[in-house]
Amino acid sequence: MNATHSGTARSAPPGPTCPEFWRSPLRGPWLTSVLGVVLLVGITVLFVTGLLSYAAYNPGLAEVNDKTPDKGWLGFYLFDWPTRPYWLYRLTQGVHVTLGVALVPVLLAKLWSVVPKLFTWPPVHSLGHALERLSLLLLVGGALFEFVTGVFNVQLNYVFPGSFYTLHFYGAWVFIAAFFAHTALKLPTAWRTLRRRGLRAELRTPVSETRPEPADETGLVSPRPDPPTMSRRGALGLVAAGSLMLLGTTAGQSVGGPLRSTALFAPRGQDPGTGPNGFQVNKTLAAAGLSETDIGPDWRLTVRGGGEEVTLTRDQLLDLPRHSVDLPIACVEGWSTTNQRWGGVRLSDLAELVGLGAGPADVLVDSVQRSGSFRTAALRENQVGDPRALLATHVNGAELSADHGYPARIIVPAAPGVLNTKWVTRLTFTEAR
């Protein structure tokens, strides 16, 4: 037992604050470093794709889309989200959600590997140590918050109070600041550790030859380890198997095709039925608080802009020039459809009805839906002007079902699913800023 462990053990009360409480012979800087490198790469990708997802919601266009008020300089990177390639959001958000779910076992293993550090005794012994403990609290708390809220949003369409976008956005910045600060401090140690103890050699070491790492200043190595019942190769294999299982039971919701039936942990990942309208639905008519009366014969579409207003029945809408496009729907929860054949009227043609067809125009879209998020959404001029952007009335050769947005819904290439507003009742076009 080295002097550090001995002194700590004498002063620490019994229980997890005592180094001898932690007996695993696998804990040490090498295992922690391997898991840390995996998380460094994975979380960096998660952060970047998360920022892209936020940009795709067009928060800079109008307050109606911006669910994260007073973001200030945190929105420095926002840019006009493109409509090409049409599968862009399907790719970035699919990677974000699928990778996030697959990294859960790695995160849990990393927390297990450093759990003795959370119970260091005394809890604080200097100002510098207090700051280090605070950064560790932000790191661990931020990681758990981001992963838990993300998984709950995927599985339950979010159950926490307040806006998911606000909480997840600010939580991500707090976590990533702590994460990169921690990485900057620990990366040199991790690099030295991994160079001294090669990955290939460790993966070839069986249980019978597994030994505790030499005690060092990290305090991760147990002073009284139990005999090993698993090699480090086995521990990493167990974590990898968990990640692969989650990957295999989640990725199909984004990849589609034959893999869609394997998306067992994705509530809207699998095909819900057959027929022209037999594809994923995020929110049904009933879940939106609507009834058949709200979308019945009395439904009207109001188109406003340039000081003009036009009101259309559904039959009049169907008489306008029609176009067809093949586009998927991709949602923030990570699921997406394969390409569906949508039929309807171009948004740019509807802008022309009120005299705004000659130049670029934004549009504010209102749904019949009276409550809930994104019943109103704003689209930018590049989205309105894309010839594939439609007010759709049909899909795959049939009328839209009530759950898919009958009488009419928005379809825009590369846009998040919630911006493809269903049960549209009003379009307000304005000249682009």
UniProtKB/TrEMBL annotation:
One example GO MF annotation = oxidoreductase activity
Q: Which CDD domains match?
A: SO_family_Moco
Region called Disordered, residue ranges:
205-228
Q: Please give the name of this protein.
A: DMSO/TMAO reductase YedYZ molybdopterin-dependent catalytic subunit
Q: Where is the Oxidoreductase molybdopterin-binding domain?
A: 298-432
TM regions (residue ranges): 30-57, 94-115, 136-155, 167-187
Protein keywords: Membrane, Transmembrane, Transmembrane helix
Q: Which domain of life does the UniProt lineage start with?
A: Bacteria
Q: Which PANTHER family match?
A: BLL0505 PROTEIN, PROTEIN-METHIONINE-SULFOXIDE REDUCTASE
Q: Does the keyword Zinc belong to this entry?
A: no
